[in-house]
Amino acid sequence: MLKNTSEYKRFVWELNNIINLENMENENIIFLCLGTNRVIGDAFGPVVGSALKKVGFKNNKIKIIGDLENVVTYNNINNKIKFINVNYRNSMVIVLDSALSNQSDVGRVFIQNRGLKYAESLRKKNNTVGNISIKAVVGEDSFDVNKNFSNLMDVNIKQIEYVSAIVASGIVEVMNKKENIGKNICK
Question: How far apart, in whole angstroms, are the C-alpha atoms of residue 43 and residue 146?
Fold first, then answer.
């Protein structure tokens, strides 16, 4: 079972420690799921976004932007950021994206308490977006744009499904737990 794996337990523990309860009470939490459904290795964000939308959240302050039907890519991310800034000011933005790194990190998920530089493995000029980043390492960084694109095309779909299931299930568990704690504190 997925929830008994060490990867799942580590992810839930780390996410739980990064997201502050106060943030859930005072502002929207936006999950900005980056990637495309046209490249397997870049589909992590949209797969997680679709899974989160399918499950749904009771808390209407939790928003999901980016899924398999409405992707957020390098080409439209500036419009999505403007949309967030206009409609959800002062929100906590948690950015999810695929990443390339060392071979030893492939299959791992990293959470950082800072924004994310998107499209970095393709050496695109970009800005940092978000407050918290969740990156799934799906392949090795060759430090060459063409090889990296090829690496993203050659990722096994089972790997994307596995890390996406860990992250989506972990997010649901943490957000539901935080929501219940918040309700008990406010009583």
Answer: 18
DSSP state of 121: G
| Contact (Cβ atoms closer than 8 angstroms) between residue 159 and residue 42 | no
DSSP assignments along 22-68, one per residue = HHHHHS-EEEEEBB-SSSGGG-HHHHHHHHHHHH--S-TTEEEE--S
Q: So where are the chain's domains?
A: 2-170
In angstroms, the CA 43 to CA 26 distance is 31
pLDDT by residue (tens digit) across 30-79? 999 999 999 999 999 999 999 999 998 877 889 999 999 999 998 899 99
The yes/no answer on whether domain 2-170 falls in CATH 3.30.70.920 is no
Name the phi and psi angles at 74, rounded to 5: -55, -35
Which pLDDT score is estimated for 61? 86
CA–CA separation, 134 vs 175, rounded Å? 15
Range of weakest confidence among 15-29, 42-56, 169-183 = 15-29
